[in-house]
Write a structure and sequence with these properties.
- Helices cover about 20% and strands about 35% of the residues.
- With about 110 residues, the protein is an alpha+beta fold.
- The protein has one domain: NE0471 N-terminal domain-like.
- The relative contact order is 0.18.
Amino acid sequence: MNKKKPSDIQIDRHAGELVILWRDGSEGRYALEELRRGCPCAQCREARGEGDGVNAGGLTLLNPEAISATAAVRGFSQVGRYGIRIEWEDGHDHGIYTFEFFREVDAGG
């Protein structure tokens, strides 16, 4: 049994958090708004200026999808043994959040 893997994952809509119960007995709570702002998909990374060709004169150019992004969640699905894909209320579901990412957040970076 790998203690770095989750035993349960839930959405706490009232608190606006993704809750992961880890096999080592710890619990991680992750703000949905921060997860959406930090979506790891290529499209969102480019919108944040982390890709090629998105910055013009030092300004980050946001497309209409990035401007209207929502932190409301429809649901999520597990991706293999390494992460989850969150389906946001606006239909965006391209980012895969790895369990390693969540553990790094838990460790403070």
